[in-house]
Amino acid sequence: MSWEQARAELHFALVNSDQLVRAVASGRRRGFQPEWRRVEVRPIDIKAGRRIQVVRLDERQAHTTNLDSGEWLTVIDELLDAGFGHWHVDSADEQIQLRVTKKGEALVHRGKPSEVTEQMSTSHDRVKARRLNPENPDVERFLVAVGIADAQGRIKPSRQDKYRQIEEFVRVLDASVNDALIAGSLVESSAEKPWQLVDLGCGNAYLTMAAYVFLACVRGEHVRVHGVDVREDSYRRNSELATNLGIDAHVTFEAAYISDASDRAADVVLALHACDTATDDALARAVQCSASVVLASPCCHHDLQRQIGTRAPEPYGLLTGSGILRERFIDVLTDSIRAELLRCVGYRVDVIEYVSDEHTNRNLMIRAIKTGAPPRRQDLKEYDALIAGWAVEPRLAQLIAGEIASGRNRLGA
């Protein structure tokens, strides 16, 4: 089939938003260089009505826009003419996979919609397909053991918020692992080379255990998990829980500060609600072991709060004059700096709200995928100006100074 014929078929599938479930464009056609490494499309239903969500991914971050029907018609042509070499389109009644050969021919495969496609929903209000479904015996054992489900495997009414938080966390983990596989920084797991996941500041290890159960028992991956927390009682409790679940050969724990924890290789690093500069310690550990996936949910931003106090460079005095505004602004400043530093050392980064704030106010997550991309000169220039203007010394910048210097050297900056 010629590209022109295939383009017409793709256009028809993409225009029909009532039937469209998801579309992914990646790769490149010979003679083309798409601006984006990958584009993901799906319809969503919000209060304002049906929208098409388009996520454009480069090597550094994800750019998301929600389009109405008129805007989407224009963007369809833009995407089809961008030069992508691979298309995967899921609709309610079929699945289309397209690859453009070096000779410019389009190889098209059509099939029935996948089971996942049939479960997917566009509505924010409908029940989503569960990653941690209690009907899975391993999932049920975990949920019962941590007190989220009763003895019959039913989610307790009083623990619905905790269940939603864990469920949304594994959704992010699932997508992040897939992105790292596509980026090539993570390779398929095997018995000989299982994925190594390290949770720094694991606390009561609900999410640590959830990560293992999802990856090993739902996805079927080979994985080893290690949790680190400073509290001795957490170490004992978590180790006992792993033993009771029969997963202690694959899930281990350690009582230590993050900075003092045993050195371990890590493919995936979690740092969920590590307090203040413990988040920086965890991010530094992730960078230094070249982790493919980093998921960090910061908590208690005191470091820059202490450095800045009530002073501010002109004309930003209004941002630090009020206590609550100062606190919230410096929280945002701290996490913006962290995200930019990760980009400077070869990660694609986006900052997301991984669970609604109606369930927890600690819902911000820094999500980083290793790509190895060098920093951009303009970004380094803006970062340097920001740090100089506010006269701060970010903890993370100190911890990964060598890696940042290497990034600058790659540019001759």
CATH architecture of the largest domain: 3-Layer(aba) Sandwich
The strand line-up of the biggest sheet is 4-3-2-1-5-6-7
The residue ranges in which pLDDT falls below 50 over 5 or more consecutive positions are: 115-127
- Give the CA-based shape: globular
Structural class assignment: alpha/beta
Largest sheet: 7 strands, antiparallel
CATH level-4 homologous superfamily of the largest domain: Vaccinia Virus protein VP39
Task: Please tell me the total number of domains.
Answer: 2
CATH topology name of the largest domain, in short, is: Rossmann fold
Oligomer state equals single chain
Please tell me the overall pLDDT: 87
By DSSP (H or I, 4+ residues per run), the number of helices equals 14
Question: Total strand count, please?
Answer: 14
CATH top level of the largest domain is Alpha Beta
Distance between the termini: 48 Å
Question: SSE order, as H and E?
Answer: HEEEEHEEEHHHEHEHEEHEHHHEEHHH
Please explain how this structure is put together:
The chain is an alpha/beta fold and 413 residues long. It has 2 domains: 3-119, no CATH class; 137-411, 3-Layer(aba) Sandwich (Rossmann fold). It is built from 14 helices and 14 strands. The strands form 2 sheets. The protein has a 7-stranded antiparallel beta sheet with strand order 4-3-2-1-5-6-7, with helices on one face. Strands 10-9-8-11-12-14-13 form a 7-stranded mixed beta sheet, sandwiched between helices. The N and C termini lie far apart (48 Å). 35% of the residues are buried.
